């Protein structure tokens, strides 16, 4: 069971940049091809910018051509949660951080093997940690 991170709206506003807050706490979306990780090729892991929860491995990242970082699967079964999103006149599956409920993006069933899934994630919701730093974390 994942331990939840709970903060007031004011605490989130003080912790996050304006863009991070709009994306993670207000379910915003950055414009395609503008986020710092959409074309990023580093090796390591992507964590939730709000709480530091491990979300995705660079090994699961692929170029979907969508303009957002895309992954075939989360780093672990309990890293993210999903919920129905009926905003903007569409029915989609929203992806949220399982630890702090931050909005990350959406998951679609048009990804490559082995999962056939495309986790389309906002760069503003992510913090990349290079492999070298992970080794020193132990």
Automatic annotation (TrEMBL):
Cofactor binding: number and manner: Binds 1 zinc ion per subunit. The zinc ion is important for the structural integrity of the protein.
Family to which this protein belongs: Belongs to the MsrB Met sulfoxide reductase family.
Keyword check for Lyase: no
Cofactor: Zn(2+)
InterPro entries reported for this sequence: Met_Sox_Rdtase_MsrB, Met_Sox_Rdtase_MsrB_dom, Mss4-like_sf
Pfam short name (any one): SelR
Gene Ontology CC terms, in alphabetical order: cytoplasm
Gene: msrB
MF-aspect GO terms: peptide-methionine (R)-S-oxide reductase activity; zinc ion binding
EC number: 1.8.4.12
GO terms (BP aspect): protein repair; response to oxidative stress
Residues the record marks as active site: 120
Keyword annotations of the record: Metal-binding, Oxidoreductase, Zinc
Protein name (Swiss-Prot/TrEMBL): Peptide methionine sulfoxide reductase MsrB
Catalytic reaction list: L-methionyl-[protein] + [thioredoxin]-disulfide + H2O = L-methionyl-(R)-S-oxide-[protein] + [thioredoxin]-dithiol
Top enzyme category: oxidoreductase
Amino-acid positions noted as binding Zn(2+) in the UniProt annotation, renumbered to this chain: 48, 51, 97, 100
HAMAP family xref list: MsrB (MF_01400)
Transmembrane segments: none
Residue span(s) of domain MsrB: 9-131
């Amino acid at each position: 069971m994942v331990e939840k991170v709970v903060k007031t709206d004011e605490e989130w506003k003080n912790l996050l940049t304006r863009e991070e807050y709009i994306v993670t706490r207000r379910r915003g979306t950055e414009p395609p091809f503008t986020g710092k990780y959409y074309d990023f090729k580093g090796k390591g892991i992507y964590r939730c910018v709000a709480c530091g929860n491990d979300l995705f491995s660079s090994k699961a990242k692929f170029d979907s051509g969508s303009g957002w970082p895309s992954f075939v699967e989360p780093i672990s079964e309990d890293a993210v949660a999903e919920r129905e999103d009926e905003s903007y006149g569409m029915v989609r599956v929203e992806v949220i951080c399982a630890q702090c409920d931050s909005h990350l993006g959406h998951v679609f069933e048009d990804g490559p093997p082995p999962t056939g899934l495309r986790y389309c994630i906002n760069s503003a919701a992510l913090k990349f940690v290079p492999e070298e730093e992970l080794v020193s974390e132990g």
